[in-house]
Every structure is written in structure tokens, then in C-alpha cells.
């Protein structure tokens, strides 16, 4: 497809033709979207010649930018200047990707003639480290910017993000006006950095595109500079950017184009002619200054919040040969508006500058490379991959030219190992939910391409970590500190997934041999792989593997299975008597008549701690004793795709009881490892454990099977169960020894605990309970478990048990105290430690809990309180969210104390209070902190509303006096007046009527986008037919709006471009009634 873009801004308009390629969704791709770089490798479009060394000599900061030298006559060594005072270990911001100028400008033609050259061993002309340092030193030394470190890629206190994906993320509190006035950030005026960014998962994700072309990355660095509170604005920002690119980096001016915001009539926004004129004054020709609409050149943080026009600098890959081929280099955002909840735009009281430039792309331009993967940021990794795998050398091919997807695999592995290293160094490890789950997908994608395409040996990915540290460690020293830990974690996860991948491949291949040419892949087999927990394969990976083989998955069957599982999970959230596969009284009687012994479920306790700190769960072999259909009928065999119940002689699965949710996992037939029977859950009925499963193929009574629990699922349940015991103990320590548990339930996501209380817990009590649990977790106490005779537990002071029947012998769980010592009545140990009768599965040490946060509390009934809590990473995130919201509330308190200059500012502050209140009410944060912040915000909202009323009364008095001067007499006043809200307009009307009681008043107030406010009041003693409501309705109906009110006072809204006609309607109606 070809887009025709107007070229220039005045005079004869020529056309800039930008070819836009189509992108296929799945491999192979005959034509891939190439965002840039293709033409640099062809003879018709040589890269601009870069001198061996760039020159830049720091000048006096007062030197005029308009009269600066074009280039020093005697070059200094640019790289030496860039590296003076050592490597600057800082990091960078970005305004955000500006949008579909990407669709029009940023796309280059599809791949046509791939280069066949291997990577050169010669060093690139300019080192990436020097490019990064030159940016930072330029803004620090020449323009007085403060260099700030890169934020962690793990967002702190921002649940809307999985990863930090732009440089501006860490400065959100400044943009939103919520920065803590006591914090260091509150003093920021002009700053610069290089920010680590990850775009994978969530709204902005490039994961599936990485490797398919020459430009996408999941991890990248953003160079950026900011000015807060109007420190500088458009002219300074543009001139500095132009100076850096053309004088410091030496990019020829004739290779640079710029775009600016061309306005948006629908939103009432004028073109940003100021930015246009700045670029023209800097010497950019009219023909290379392009105007675009809001989709391309108006940047917004989100649905609401600060926003503004942006101007972008683009590089011409064609170099003047043939049609221009433009790629965005730098985005400069001028935040001067705020997007309100109703979609309207309001001017910000303070303006900000927020810029971002991708380091990888800049380095490629400066090094004359056609791809970011050909720069020295990636070439060491690509060389290491070649040496470690023995695969053919990297040639930079894409699409159909990339036979066997060799080059795609190089790019995937190189990109993903950088992302893995940076994320793990910042505390994000592969896991089962949120950002850790995305990182797990990234690792598994890298393993697939390295082993299946590049034929890499086991442990290969971990061996690449030192190469990443070598290239990025100087800029981000946390990589150097964590190098060994990163390599170890990557290797451990790689080994675990390789086993799953090999098994999954065998299962898929075996199933395919049984399918006809037009058959779809059975949903049950794909589901069995995805439901096998940490030893299985995610559905998206199964689907991708099938697509590569040209096989379609039974999506309808898969949707049905997913819906059934979702329904079960929903019921499990609030357990009730659930219908499903159960053993009824007749089935149990038949088993007892046949002399079938109860299920031996002792293997569920067969797990241990590895020296590394991880858990090892033993497999369990068993025999199928009986099979049941969904309606409970006992059968000797089940067929393919059938949901069934399995009764085994022994099991390692935990069946739901004691408040702990059931295990899940899979089983295989002994000697046939390539058919997985996923077990969704297990129930215990009369001592028999029934496993609920879907059979991908025939299974018979008498088959020998091997059971595997989903280890991540089980471990999460163990964490929550041990945390539940500590919570029970902490409540007794805080509220008193008479405190009693009323029930509990736990799943991998969270735990629920019901406790008998005389009154709702105070914030201080909730905080104390959390503190006691955290102390036990930090001490990493041992958890002792032992079966003892029930009679030994009968008279132990402080021993916790529920009002239920316990087996004999009974299992005792004791935290920090050996069971024998805890059960000694003379020791009193059970009064001071957590000691309970419990059949659940538990951690072996408390440290694995990580943390516990109570995130919810409500009264079930008088005297019973229900607590909701999370642990581990979720608890840490909850604390960070709470801390962030507390800082915002404190900043709002400070703003309120300073007072508002006008009604607009007061209303904005009140809106911010409402937004904060909603965030505090709904966010996952410590409940004690929620209660405190809610009380503070309630008081602040009252103060804000009082301030608004005072300001509105003052504004109304001023407006009413102005109107009285214009209307000296008469029975009716009809006019327009500027008012920020209906509330102010109504107050003006009322004050007018108080001063001239015999006059009826109707006022209109024009608003942005043609909207009009209306308020009126009729004088006392007017005819009964003349009512304010009818008057307002007549006028607002004329404007296509609506009105409401009473006989005396009314208000309404409408939209019109002809206010005089509306005023004439108002006068005519009133005079006719009078």
C-alpha cells in the first residue's frame, strides 16, 4: 500500500511517497514489515559518511544557539569528550511512541535484496557507549541538566504497567502534580537520562514481532531530556535537539525531516505553528517540515491526564536518492493540556517538556547500519551465538529469504537474553503471573529458537549472560553485581523447559500421525499440555508449533474447555456446595463391598528443599482402580476426549479439604510418556480420592500411571497455607488469646481468613498483625510437621484446632518449635508459637512466604470479620502501590494548604481528590493504609469543596457587578458570561436576582467545542405561566440540549455555534410570557 503525504507547508504542494508494506501474521512471511534500514545496504542508498571521529568542544553555556558555529574548525575527539569523567551510568526517558506517523512515515519497503555478508569482525566506527555518554554529557555540561539513574524495569507503585516501557514512567508524579513535596523528585527542573525499557505483554508489546524484522526489540534504551514546570519549552527543546544531532553527532542536516502537530478542529486545537516556525528558524527547509494530525503528533499519557502536541525528528534513509524513506529518531512532547474524564481538554497550570530517542536506532544511524542488530550493541551477542551453536553465520535476512529462520532465531535469542538479564537484575524472575509470566514466555521463546533452530546445546542461554553484562554493565552496574545469579536462574529455567518442550513435541508429533489431512488438532490434547502446570506448554506456544506445521487447532473445543475451567475457578473463589464428579453413597457402598481400601494419599507430603532453596516434588506411581463417567457411572474404560473421574490406589495430589484448594497437574501411563492426562482437581469422598481429568485417549482400569503435580500451583498453595497459620497466630498475639478462627480458604492467588472479633479491626491492629507475620517470615523459621496420637494433643495449652473431627493419628504443624517440644504441656510453647492440627501441605521454612499483606476486610456478621491477604510478589506490589498512593495524598494535602489561585485550579484539585479516592478504594494495597488514606481524603475533599464555594461566590459577585453595569433596568436580563461551570453560572444568576428582585435573568456561558451552559431565574410576581424550567427548556431545546429545574430556578446545557440566535430565543420567550 502507498500513502501520499503532503510535503511542505506553503506554496506548491509536492508529494512525499512512502511505501507501506503489509505484514503477515504467521510464518513464513514473504513480505515483512521493515520499519527501516533496508535501503542503507543497497547501492542506491548509501549511508551518510561518518568521519572517523566526531568533533564537539563544550562551549560556554551562555553562547547563543542562534549564532553557534556549524562545526569546530579543528575537531576534538568526540568519543573522548563523551567518555570524560568515566562512563556515565545513567538512564533515559521517553515521551511515548507518538503513533501512526509510524503508519505513514516510519515504515520502509519490504525486503528485496538481502545482504549475504557475515558480521564483520572490525569494530564499528562509533561505539554505542560513546553515543550514550555523549547524549548525557551534552545535556549535563552544555545545558545544565541533572543526570538521574534509570528506574528499574519493574514499576514501583504503578499497577497499570507490567514493565517500565518509557522514560517518562518514573516522572509520572510530576506530570500528574502528585509528587511528594519533600521528595528529591520535587526539586527536579531539568533532567536527562538513559532509561531501561521493556515492551512485552500488556498494551504495548513487541514480543511477537521480535525476530520477524530488523527493528523490533523487547528491551531497549531510551535517551531523554525533560523540563518540568516551564523550566524551558519549545524553542529551547528543539534547538538543543537540532544542535546535538547535527553538531555533536554530525548527522547531515539534509538527511533530517521534522513533523509538527497540524491541529484538530474537532477538539478545538489550533496547529502548533510555534513549533513549525522554530524549525524554520533553525534552517530546516519548508519542504522538509511536515504537518500531521492528532493521531501522529499529539501525545497522551492515557485516557486522562497530561497531554500535548509533539514534534518529531526523522532521518531519511534514502539520503536524497529516489523517494525519501523516513524513520523517526526523536520525539519531543510539549505537555500543555490535561485530558479530563469527560474527554475535554484543559490548559495545564504548568507546562513540561518530555523527549525520547531510542539509543539502538540512533546508534544504527551513526554507525551506518541498516539494522539495530548490526550495531555493536548486538554484534558481540550474535558472534557469541554463532560460536556457541555452530549455526551458519548471521546474514541479516528476513521473510522468505531467511531459509530455515536462522537469522530470525539469532535476533530472537540476542534480544531475549538482553531482556532476561536486565529484568532479573531488577528483581523480576520468570514466574506464573503478571510480569514474571511474561518473562517466562520470553525465556521459553528464546529456548525454542536456540534449540530447535540453532541447535544450541543445553545451558547455552546462560552462557550468553556474560556477553550482555560486558555490553551493558558499565551503563547499568546492577548487571555486573547480579551476573552469576542471572546466569544460574536462566540456566535452571532453560533446563526445566527443555524437558517440557521435548515431551510436548513428542505428544504433538504422535497426535499428528493419527490425524487425517483435513482434521483439526484435538482440543483435548492441547488442553492436556496447557493444564499440566510447570511441566506443560502454554496454549499460545502449542498453537504456534501447530501453525508452523500447517495444522489448525480445534478452537471451538478449546473455548469450551476454557469456559468450563473458568466457571469452576469462579465457583472456587467463593466455595459453595459444588456439583461435579463426586462419589455418591451408592458408589462408596460398592467400593466398600468390594473391599477396596481408601486411597493412600501420604505421597502428597513427599517433597524436600534443594540446596539452592527450591522445592523438589517426588513423582508417584499408582494403579487405576476404577473409572467414572461424568454422571458417576462406574466404567472399565474411558475414550478419547471424555471427562472422567479416576480412582487410584495411591496419589500425590492434595484433594481439597481443610480450606486448601486441590492440586492440579497430570498423569501419564507408565512406559508411555507422550500422552498426558491432565488432572484439573481432586476430591476426597469417604477416604477415597477421585481425580477429575480429561482423557486424550483410551484409559482402562488396571493401567499403571505416574502422577505429576503442578509444582508452581502447589508451591503457591503451600505459601498461602503456612501464611494462614502465621496470620492466625498473629491475630491471637494482637487481639488476645481468646481470638478464634471461624474458617479459611486459600488458593494460589490469595487467602481468606474468617476470625471472631468483638469489633472491626482498627488500622493499627491490622498493621500490628502484618508486622508480626513479617517478623516470622524474616526469621525464616523452620516448619515442623509430624503425625502423633490424637490423645497427645488433647490438653496442650494454646494448641489451635477447629471444631471438627480429626483423624487418629493426627498431623501437627508447628512453626519454629519441634512438634515434640510443642506438645509438651510443661513447655507452654504452643502459647508463643503457631502450632495447629492440620492435614494441609506447608512450606518447610517461613522465608519462602516473602511477605504478607492484608488487602481487604469486611464484616460477615456481627462478631465475624473476613480478611483477604496476599503473599510474596503480590504483597510487595501491594505495599508499593500503597506507598505511591500515600505520596499522592500527601502531595494533594500540600497543594490544598497552599490554596488555589482561581476557580479552575480549585476544581482541578477537587477532581484530583476524587480520582485519588477512587484509586484508594479500588487498588490492591494494605487495608490499614487504605483506611487511613480514606479518612484523610474525606477530610481533604470537604476542605476542597469549601474552597470552591468561596471562590465561586467571589467570582459570581464580580460577574454580577459587571452585568449590572451593562443592564441598567428592564424586566429581563439575557446575556452571555464566562463561567467555569454550571455551579458558578447559577451563583451569578442568583446574585443578580438578589440585587434586582424584579428582574428575570437568563445567562449563557460558551464552553470549548461549542458546548453552552444555561442558567435562569424568574422574578417574584411574574405570571404563573412564566417558569424558569420552561424558559430554560425553550432555549436549550433550540440548542439541541436539555434543561431541568423548578418554577423559580433552572439550568441546562446545549451546543450551538450561533449564540446570538440562542439569546434572541431567550429574549423573545421571556417578553412573550411577560
TrEMBL record:
Q: What post-translational events are described? A: ISGylated.
State where Zn(2+) binds.
721, 725, 838, 842
EC annotation from Swiss-Prot or TrEMBL: 6.1.1.7
Q: Which reaction does it catalyse?
A: tRNA(Ala) + L-alanine + ATP = L-alanyl-tRNA(Ala) + AMP + diphosphate
The organism's superkingdom is given as Eukaryota
Does the record bear Protein biosynthesis in its keywords? yes
| InterPro entries attached to this UniProt entry | aa-tRNA-synth_II/BPL/LPL, Ala-tRNA-lgiase_IIc, Ala-tRNA-ligase_IIc_anticod-bd, Ala-tRNA-synth_IIc_core, Ala-tRNA-synth_IIc_N, Ala-tRNA_ligase, Ala_tRNA_ligase_euk/bac, Thr/Ala-tRNA-synth_IIc_edit
Instruction: Give the first-level EC class, as a single word.
Output: ligase
Q: Outline what the protein does.
A: Catalyzes the attachment of alanine to tRNA(Ala) in a two-step reaction: alanine is first activated by ATP to form Ala-AMP and then transferred to the acceptor end of tRNA(Ala). Also edits incorrectly charged tRNA(Ala) via its editing domain. In presence of high levels of lactate, also acts as a protein lactyltransferase that mediates lactylation of lysine residues in target proteins, such as CGAS. Acts as an inhibitor of cGAS/STING signaling by catalyzing lactylation of CGAS, preventing the formation of liquid-like droplets in which CGAS is activated.
User: What's the family?
Assistant: Belongs to the class-II aminoacyl-tRNA synthetase family. Alax-L subfamily.
Protein known as: Alanine--tRNA ligase
Q: From which lineage does this chain's organism come? A: Eukaryota, Metazoa, Chordata, Craniata, Vertebrata
Question: Which gene is annotated as encoding this protein in its UniProt record?
Answer: AARS
